[in-house]
Amino acid sequence: MSTMSEKEVEIAEPKGKLGVLLVGLGAVSTTFIAGVEAIKKGLGEPIGSLTQMGTIRLGKRTEKRIPQISDFVPLADLNDLVFAAWDLFDDDAYAAAVKSGVLEADLLKELKPELEKIHPMKAVFDNRYVKRLQGTHVKQGKTKWDLAQQLIEDIEQFKAVNDLERTVMIWCGSTEIFITQSEVHGSLEALESGMKANDDNIPSSMIYAYAALKMGIPFANGAPNLTVDIPAFLELAEVNQVPICGKDFKTGQTLMKTILAPGLKARMIGLSGWFSTNILGNRDGEVLDDPESFKTKEESKLSVLEHILQPDVYPQLYGDFYHKVRINYYPPRRDNKEGWDNLDIFGWLGYPMQIKIDFLCRDSILAAPLVLDLVLFLDLAKRAGMFGIQEWLSFYFKSPMTPPELYPEHDLFIQLMKLKNTLRYMRGEGQITHLGRDYYE
Ligand SMILES: NC(=O)c1ccc[n+]([C@@H]2O[C@H](COP(=O)([O-])OP(=O)(O)OC[C@H]3O[C@@H](n4cnc5c(N)ncnc54)[C@H](O)[C@@H]3O)[C@@H](O)[C@H]2O)c1
Asked: Where are any strands of DSSP class E within 172-303?
């Protein structure tokens, strides 16, 4: 049996510069940008990034073909990335990185010339959607529609000044208040009229997403806000053939959940309760201290276990587990979060056991490589003519976007297989099912 599938997907070469538009120039964005600059100078390694460190097995195990992902699919080179950002605070990327307190001062000093050059553009921001922040570096406009046009002008200028071939946009802005889908989100027409009428159900993040998709720019949402996950944007992504994905980077505690829960389920171990609590002291923690922003985050964090454990399918094991997530703003810890998990599990004959996790993690250190991978993979998807929801990028998100009729896949290992099989598909390589009978025939 041939391991090649029918046909390779045609993928345009990554020629020229790739513009990276970041909404928000906070801890995650600056750790990402500074990290890329440090890696380019040989001051650090891209740990945690699949596009930079990952390999992919092709064909049978006996063939020993395991190229680097970056040699297998044509990705943009780190030297070709050009950064721009919007923020409601006027700090350049160096000042913002110092304030975020993630990377060491000595390292940041070495990167100062590159970081200082990145001045944020004025934000589209309305304090009603992020109650804990007040900023002055903010665009003025009569309507949300006008504000979108201003963003489009910013992007056009960024492209012209830097002679960019392609661009991608990643939401690394604060978590907005909880908003559910309503009529104005139902179609592109309704959304455009709503923007002109300043409809309250259109938060700032949707105005950025609109500008991106309108210009054919791929968009990823790193926060749990609804943003691009509405029918109006699915429609626009389809019409303009733009890849989109989200929501909410899967980094600390939720990453651990989606590693552990599939393992417990694989062994048919029961769960009676999972209590998760966090302390963190960065600006993200401050924003999440507002109950309305926390609600958005909570929804995103809670859905994971339900989907992985399938209580309907396994009522004796998971029919009745108690799941609680707490986030506590605690300034002394800054970006270095501590997350505790207590799992009450049960085994053979229902005998109870416990697992305790104390994860001293660094939020932005875990998030930065995800931003890099999303930039490179979204650009790849666009060059490969893929558009709409990119489910193969679920690997990176706590609340992966799916079409309304599909439930999301949360299991990290299924997500990774989906991602790698998509890359194999793009290159006309056979899918790997791990059946392996042919080794014994
Ligand atoms: N770090 C992680 O592990 C992680 C994981 C999942 C999700 N996230 C999400 O990623 C986002 C960024 O996290 P962070 O730690 O960098 O937070 P941060 O507070 O350090 O940075 C966010 C920045 O966005 C800016 N901002 C807010 N609204 C904006 C708007 N409308 N336009 C332009 N800028 C705006 C803020 O001023 C701030 O500088 C948050 O929503 C967070 O919940 C982070």
From this structure: 219-221, 243-246, 270-280
Query: Domain span at residue 188?
Result: 17-249+365-426
Tell whether 221 and 348 lie within a shared domain.
Answer: no
Atom of ligand 1 nearest to the CA of 133: 37
Same structural domain for residues 202 and 287?
A: no
Q: Rounded to an integer, what distance in angstroms lies between the CA atom of residue 23 and that of residue 170?
A: 6
| 215 and 131 housed in the same domain | yes
Number of domains in the chain: 2
Both 96 and 214 in a single domain? yes
* Interior angle at CA 395, CA 300 and CA 73, nearest 5: 150
Residue 8 lies in a domain: no
This prediction has a pTM of 0.94
Are residues 321 and 308 part of one domain?
yes
Helix (H, G, I), strand (E, B) or coil at 26: coil
Pocket of ligand 1, beta carbon within 6 A: 23-29, 86-89, 100, 123-125, 130, 133, 172-175, 204, 222-223, 248-249, 251-252, 282-284, 287, 363-364, 366-367
Do residues 86 and 45 both lie within one domain?
A: yes
pLDDT (tens place) for every residue of the chain, 441 residues total = 444 555 889 999 999 999 999 999 999 999 999 999 999 999 999 999 999 999 999 999 899 999 999 999 999 999 999 999 999 999 999 999 999 999 999 999 999 999 999 999 999 999 888 888 888 899 999 999 999 999 999 999 999 999 998 999 999 999 998 889 999 999 999 999 999 999 999 999 999 999 999 999 999 999 999 999 999 999 999 999 999 999 999 998 889 999 999 999 999 999 999 999 989 888 777 887 788 777 877 777 778 898 899 999 999 999 999 999 888 899 888 888 899 999 999 999 999 999 999 999 998 999 999 999 999 999 999 999 999 999 999 999 999 999 989 989 989 999 999 999 999 999 999 998 888 888 888
Q: How many helices (H) and strands (E) does the chain have?
A: 16, 11
Asked if 410 and 258 touch (Cβ cutoff 8 Å), the reply is yes
Number of Cβ within 10 Å of residue 434's Cβ equals 6
How far away, in angstroms, is 439 Cα from ligand 1 center? 49
Assigned domain for 108 exists: yes
Q: Classify residue 407: in a domain, yes or no.
A: yes
Nearest atom in ligand 1 to the alpha carbon of residue 287 is 19
**378, 288: one domain:** no
